[in-house]
Amino acid sequence: MRLFCFPYAGGSITVFRNWAKYLPSSIEICPIQLPGRGARFLEPSFQQITPLLSAICKKIEPFLDKPFAFFGHSLGGLIAYELAHRVRSKYSKQPIHLMVSACPAPGEINKHRSLCKLSDKDLITELRQLKGTPMDLLENEELMALTLPTLRADFSLYESYNYTFHESLECPVTVLGGMQDHVISTGKLERWYRETTGEFSFYHFSGDHFFLHSEEAAVLTLIQQKLLSLIYKVA
After folding, report:
1. How far apart are CA 68 and CA 31, in angstroms?
2. Average of per-residue pLDDT values in the chain
3. Rounded distance between C-alpha atoms, residue 233 and residue 160, angstroms
4. pLDDT tens column, 33-51
5. Whose CA, among 44, 96, 107, 228, lies 20 to 30 Å from 137?
6. What is the pLDDT of residue 234?
7. Which residues are catalytic?
8. 91: helix, coil or strand?
9. CA angle 117, 8, 49 (to 5 degrees)
10. How far apart (Å, rounded) are the C-alpha atoms in residues 114 and 111?
């Protein structure tokens, strides 16, 4: 089976660079590199989710010939959720599992904060508090000047999102949250149960909003358990 992975705002496929080493070969890791970062640095970043979904759909369609699952962290969780619905409506296919990490249920997204409109100084201050950006990058003015436009675009994508009711997914949904995450409340994570008629499960990990890194081994163990049990069912 294939596991499509979507990084958080400002993140690239390097977020998932170790995953193939720890997961069995029966799970093919397919990280999605969004425009504006990595090898696609010169491409303009998307600021609205609808055209982004269309672009991703077109790229992954040839790879939906095997059972597939989606994983996304923070912004990546929202993209994974909306993509699951887009793939179902466009190709009549559905992931066998949707896993979202540090991402509020789509109907619970907070629109009160607008990070994309902050000054460079204030945005960098917010990034320091989130603790997801390496300190050496935050302290490098030249690199931050190159990085901030992509981050702004990602925050704009998230903050411009409008929840539209979809017919519930039928696949299992697994939600991961950090016990010290002061960005996303437990209640907003638990409300993901509304988005599927399939099995819903919620797991807490030690760490803040970016526990995906500090608890990587534990996260990968959970992913392996969830996906291997499904592989046997669809085999």
Report:
1. 12
2. 91
3. 38
4. 999 998 899 899 999 999 9
5. 44
6. 54
7. 74
8. helix
9. 65
10. 7
Cα–Cα dist 64/95, whole Å: 9
Helix residue ranges, H only, the chain? 19-22, 49-60, 75-91, 120-130, 135-138, 141-159, 186-190, 211-214, 216-234
Tell me how far apart the terminal alpha carbons of the chain are, to the nearest angstrom. Answer: 10
Kindly report the pTM of this predicted structure: 0.92
Measured distance CA(106)–CA(47) in Å, rounded: 17
| Tokens representing residue 88 in the block | 């179902």
The list of the chain residues with pLDDT below 50 reads: none
Q: What angle do CA 108, 3, 132 make, to 5 degrees?
A: 55
Question: How is residue 166 written in tokens?
Answer: 């979809």
Which residue segment(s) compose the domain that 134 sits in?
Answer: 2-234
Give the Cα separation of 212 and 26 in Å (integer): 22
Residue with tokens 């411009």: 160
Describe the strand order of the beta sheet including 173-178 as a list of residue ranges: 28-31, 2-6, 68-73, 97-101, 173-178, 200-205
Determine if residue 92 is left, alpha or beta; phi over 0 gives left, psi from -120 to 50 gives alpha, anything else beta. Answer: left
Place of tokens 């029966």: 26
Asked if 45 and 153 touch (Cβ cutoff 8 Å), the reply is yes
SS3 3: strand
One-letter amino acid of 208? D
Residue 68 CA to its chain's centroid (Å): 15
For the CA atoms of 8, 190, 184, 105, the dihedral, rounded to the nearest 10 degrees, stands at 50
Total structural domains within the chain = 1
